[in-house]
Amino acid sequence: MWQGLDIFLAVVEQGSFSKAAQALDVSTSHVSRQIQQLEQRLGTLLLQRTTRSINLTDAGKHYAAKLKLIQQELSDANDQLLGGQQIPKGHIRITGAGDFVANTVAPVIAEFCLQYPEVTVEIDFNNRNVDLVEDGFDLAIRFGRMRDSSLIARKLTPRPMTLAASPRYLDAHSAPTHPHELAQHNCLLAANNRWRFIIDGEIEEVKINGNWRTNHPHALLQACLQGLGISHLARDIVEPHLTSGALISLLDEFQVTDNASWLVYPRKDLMPYRVRLLIDFLLDRFHST
Question: Pfam families per the record (predicted)?
């Protein structure tokens, strides 16, 4: 039943039969034979092979993700029997994006590594909405509102939004007094062209338009500072510029307050001890500030 599973995972991790064979100190022909036998037992193709590359099939991706969870459970069980649960060790893969993660969250994770030196951490910065299980991530740090999903989301810290414009922009355009007036303004776009406001006691999405779109908040901020248009960014990003007078906040009385940065992860009962410890470490640090 278990024959060939470790070799399959080695091929997935190493990206080739030859590298997997080298890592396992076996021959390449042995690796190839074990994979063929595993596919025959399962009755499905796990790997697409060409002369230049090896790629997982859809079935292979799902199978590898499940095997990694089982592998981690076995490792945790061994650690618990050996008393290793008291000393966290192993690798943690995290996905996140933006300067808030880089400048505020990452330093706290570095403190965690100082406290637990046998844990290694990899942080992948991208704006892609990755599949945590299939892409092999233990934890995601995401910004916005969390919708219902199979994942668990814990609020790391509130990050309400602020509408802002520069004095230069407002000298050339009258400041909006109601969200519906944003249709008459150049709005600096990020993920979508609808901004949420509280209007007459209800949350309403207001459609906006503009000539500037980017998925990087500081590119939006810089365009706003230059007077290109009105931005809608997390308050912590624009706060220093509001204080200096370089930006002016708008429509504060209409702002919603449910945006936050979140820790997102799969089922906690399948989670390695080191990841549970990091989550608790982050929540404790941010909730105590």
Answer: HTH_1 (PF00126), LysR_substrate (PF03466)
